[in-house]
Amino acid sequence: MHASSVGPDGDPALRRRIMNVLFIGVFMAALDAAIIAPAIPALQAAFAVDISQIGMITIVFSLFSLASTALMASLSDRYGRRPIYLFCVAAFGLGSLLIALAPGFSMVLVGRAIQGFAAGGVTPTASAVVGDAFPAEERGKALGLIGATFGMAFLLGPLLASLILLVAGWQWIFLLNCADRRADTLDGLP
Asked: What is the pTM of this model?
């Protein structure tokens, strides 16, 4: 996709809506990496796994995220930003749902693998959308805002997870990721 498809002279309101959707997707992917630490003891107790097994939750997510980043960036170049971004957001939600409904620890790991694979595509695709949809003078600011979402997620994630664990089960930490992402806002992108 090229900048001309939305264009630097495009509608500022459309760019704002696009930025909101990108912000939500990137925030949820980053939040999931930050929110998992407080949930580890609850997951360990729920599935009766030892410390070496519970560490796989983070390892699987990281490995699949790293493995998919270049692939998703390439696919978004080939097939368009919108379908790849929507795929990644939907897959992330699916992985979250699988974890929340997991009957056993192996399903938690499958869900984390799906989440990681999808998360690896969210940020590079979001960054590419910024390059396509924003004029050159606004790209740095937009990319800075996307980068700042990681900082916010890592500040808010442990606190949010702790509050959820106080009032609800660990499943709700992952069910948060199944919320509507307003992906229809990306209608301006091919």
From this structure: 0.84
